[in-house]
Amino acid sequence: MRAKARRRGPRTAGPSLSGLVAGLAVVLLAIVLLALQATVFEVVRFVLFTGVAVALPGFALWRLIGGYGRNLVEDLSAGFAVGTAGQVLVYLASASIGLQAWSWVWAPVVLVIAFVDGDARARVWRRVERPLRPLQAWLLAAATAVVLLIVYRRGPGQFLPAYTDPLRAYPDLAFQQALAASAKYDVPISTLWLGGEPMRYHTFFHQATAATQWGTRIDLTDLIHSLSWLPLFLAGCGLVFALTSRLAPTAESGATWAGPLAVFVAGLGGAVQPLAGAGLGGISTAVAAYLSPTQNLGVLIALALCVVAVDLLRADGRPRGRWVLLVLLALIAAGAKSTILPLVGAGFAFAFLQLGLARRNTRPAFLGGLLSLTVFVAALIAIFGGSTWGTEIKPFETFVQLAPYPMLVSNPHAQLLSGATTLLSWGLAASGLFFLGRRWRDTGAVFLAGVAVAGLLGTLLTTQSGVSQLYFLRTAFPVIAVLAAVGLANLVGRLGDRRAVVLVGAAGLLGLVALAVARSQSADLHGIKGPWVWTVAALAAVAVLVAVVWKLARRPGNFFVALLGGAVAACMIGATLVPLQGFVSDKASNLVFARPFRGGATAAEAGAAQWLRRNSAPGDLIATNAHCIIERDGLCDSRHFWLAALSERPVLIEGWSYSNQANRIALAGDTNPSLIPYWNSEELAANDIAFKAPTPPAIERLRQAGVRWLYADNRAGYVSPALRNYVRLRHATLDATIYELR
């Protein structure tokens, strides 16, 4: 009995009623947002599956294996990450033997153990050790709600309903859906839009989505476009809070606001924006939460890895069960987002150096670094096939690709000025980093600093098309936000007043107002000097005003500390101005968030593709004449994925962007992979001639290639009426006609 009591841990306490109400308010908001773009029946199925088959067993494993139980926000968020990891591994195993429809069975097995075994039940369902204080819970709920609303407004609220308006689409979501469609049937995933050739890519999000589809029978369109993004993002916010609470314990500092502030900054901050016509890099989590599902999952897994790694480093590798969680999350990180493990490996390297210099035990850092390196190399070979997906080592090329450069291109030092402007905007937005003080002695903080530095260096030293190297920094930015919030808490903590939250809040609100005025006053100025002068002056005025009022109110602490605290709070919170304005302003939104593209499907085209899914068998090959979402001046933007996405069938040649071959050609020629011509022009011509001028030999070539169906898109080009003489007409709409080869 005594041993069992020790395993159960110290005396625990339950969360407050007010805190639970705050959490339920966020959950209710999330469900309402889901219901705005999906049917009630779909939302019920999705919420039940996500809660019972993913989050609950993950919660049980998080507590049972890791011995956790700090608070419900952390346990539920981390539990969802662990549950997603378990779901992916089980799905990969079951799909490889054709039992993917039963991949959910692992969840009830875990739950039965958690309920039936007495010791497991005591460890899993015990009360929390450090429940959130009511104020802390409501601040966290408010920060999360604001970020959620912004993401929804510039995500589903801007792009849905899907596949109805060809002028309001985002091709990358169709790409993600096509990969998820392949994940339903193929192990490994294939390039459905290009004949089903093998695909080397981080695809664990797509396996997770396919598992959810089999478990709920919800259409992939609704999962990708309306539902899956929200629990991933919500759990990520919870883990930002959990990570912050490890470095800024509220019991010691009274900084109940540090965790909520980190969530707010990670969601919407990242760059002070002085230029009215150019955005200085969108690196906050809100930018990619909806339009990049792999990044959304990647951030969640990266944060869960950081939480476990920090605990292992601080506790000298104990309890050992947490190593199991670290291995599990590292395995999933390998296929969730390729940027994660290099950053985590750098974090362990920083921790190793710090522990070595302090002559402390370096074994946990060494083992963590070795694990990261081993899994990354294995993933590079097994998952990515040695491909870098167009990543090149080109130091500081990023500054040529970002928005300030075109404004300065006439200046001989344009790249240097662009770099200085960008780095200054990023540095001000995370200025709390410079005030961590003694926190740098904490091995956990040093590990997180390694992650942050690696994210910045990965962005600055490499290049990809579409500035995709920013995903290194986007993956690290939640960690940067955590360190910045902790640094600000450490700074204002020197005032010796637990009411310093008033100073932080006032400086933040005034910073938003001041930066809005500065942007307005400098909107007509040319170049970058004038806008920066206005911005710096506005921030300085806020800092002085806050510090003067603080001292006039006879609050304790040094004037200079109050001045610095006001300046840092104004910078960090003021950096969220443009994303906040983006809620109501399209002009502001376009500086940070993506805008809709041309080239989507009409409702008739989408309906015909969905008819194909219902009336064909998995693996049936389709030929189509639609290849370009935009064709102009002889250039074809070949990001045409929606036929494969909606039909869930391989297409002989639809688009060819984002394939491994396209990336290799683009890398060799230093060109945009979306605009390169198809590398086998004869094959493409043979495909298209069957639609434009069909003959028995042309149709026979398609038949010999394995084609079963023809999807003739009337908007993609001329379709000969004679085609029906050689094939069987099966379905016709205003924009598309489907034929079956006889």
Please give a structural write-up.
- The protein has 742 residues and is mainly α.
- Among the domains are: 1-154, no CATH class; 603-741, no CATH class.
- It has 34 helices and ten strands.
- The chain has a four-stranded mixed β-sheet, with helices on both faces. A two-stranded antiparallel sheet has the order 1-2.
- Strand 9 (727-732) and strand 10 form a beta hairpin.
- The N and C termini lie far apart (75 Å).
- The relative contact order is 0.10.
- Mean pLDDT is 91; it is low at 1-11.
- The chain crosses the membrane at residues 20-40, 46-64, 99-116, 137-155, 223-243, 255-276, 296-313, 365-385, 416-437, 444-465, 471-493, 500-520, 532-552, 559-580.
- Keywords: Membrane, Transmembrane, Transmembrane helix.
Write the layout of secondary structure elements.
Elements: H1 2-8, H2 17-35, H3 40-66, H4 72-95, H5 106-116, H6 118-124, H7 134-154, H8 156-159, H9 171-183, E1 190-191, E2 197-198, H10 204-216, H11 220-227, H12 229-247, H13 250-253, H14 258-268, H15 285-288, H16 293-314, H17 321-336, H18 340-357, H19 363-382, E3 392-393, H20 398-401, H21 404-408, H22 414-429, H23 443-461, E4 462-463, H24 470-493, H25 500-521, H26 529-552, H27 559-574, H28 577-581, H29 586-592, H30 603-615, E5 621-624, E6 630-632, E7 635-637, H31 642-647, H32 660-669, H33 681-692, H34 696-704, E8 707-713, E9 727-732, E10 736-741
What does this entry show, briefly?
The chain is mainly α.
